[in-house]
Design goal:
The chain has 194 residues and is mainly α. The chain is built from seven helices and five strands, in the order ααααβααββαββ. α2 packs parallel to α7.
């Protein structure tokens, strides 16, 4: 009995630790200079912070919430944000989004972690990139019909803006399911008020 209690406590601690080590609980310090990469990275950091808190503490009923029969559920919206995060990181790496491969099937917790780490990695890549390197980045899609490329500009008004839009939807949906966004979170300061 005592061994089971110890095992349960260790498991609980490891799950709590795993959730606490996610990026974007707070927004990182801003870069010291303005470049194409650092400005884009800061937008990604804002997305990461908003997404972290939009998805923090979601319950099963929140994930199943659907505003109407024609709309996405919260979980379907979160899945879409995850897919956008793949496009974001692939553009930062300058590699194709290969739509010929099967999409991964992930739990909510796995999807949340990967979305946040994709955003963080893209931000870190862009912070280090010169303006010339950023200007060479492409958004590349590979499908059974071939490959298409778009300038990095499309990354800004496409996947990044779309992910921000849908993160706001998750905030609205969680309010609708009775679990509102933490009122102590300041998206302006990028911190949680005491």
């Amino acid at each position: 009995m005592k061994a089971h209690l110890v095992a349960l406590l260790l498991l609980t601690h490891s799950v709590a630790f795993a959730q606490n080590d996610l990026p974007y609980r707070e927004i990182p310090e801003y870069p010291s200079s303005y470049t194409a990469g650092t400005v884009t990275a800061r937008v990604l950091d804002g997305l990461g912070f908003r997404y972290y808190w939009a998805t923090e503490g979601l319950r099963k009923e929140d994930l199943e919430f659907q505003p109407n029969k024609d709309g996405r559920t919260s979980l379907e919206t979160i899945t879409h944000i995850f897919e956008l995060s793949l496009t974001i990181i692939n553009a930062a790496r300058n590699v194709p989004n290969d739509n010929t491969l099967p999409k991964p099937v992930l739990t909510f917790d796995e999807m949340r972690r990967r979305t946040l780490t994709n955003i963080q990695e893209a931000s870190e890549i862009l912070k280090k990139a010169s303006d010339a390197e950023v200007s060479q980045l492409k958004v590349i899609f590979k499908s059974d019909k071939g490959t298409s490329e778009f300038p990095f500009w499309n990354e800004l008004n496409g996947p990044i803006a779309d992910a921000l839009w849908h993160t706001g939807q998750v905030v609205s949906f969680r309010r609708g399911s009775g679990n509102p966004f933490n009122a102590k979170v300041s998206v302006f300061a990028g911190k949680v008020r005491p």
